[in-house]
Amino acid sequence: LTLITENPLIQSPHNLRTRRIGPNISIEVHVRVDAEMTVRASHQLTIEIEQRLREVYGPATLVSIHVEPTKS
Ligand SMILES: [Zn+2]
Fold it and tell me: How far is the centre of ligand 1, averaged over its atoms, from the C-alpha of 10 (Å)?
């Protein structure tokens, strides 16, 4: 999870699920971002997380990220 929380804009990762699908790994995680963050910015964050996870677990890794607003 440090891989995900490295970025200070990403908070409270939870519901992390990893599964093996044949030779590949599927990763599902929920993260929270500032509720005022634009869709564009939060989407960019999910792309960064996906890229980082694929660097670690391989390019065929299936990544599913759910973005939620922080509770304030
Ligand atoms: Zn959640």
Answer: 13
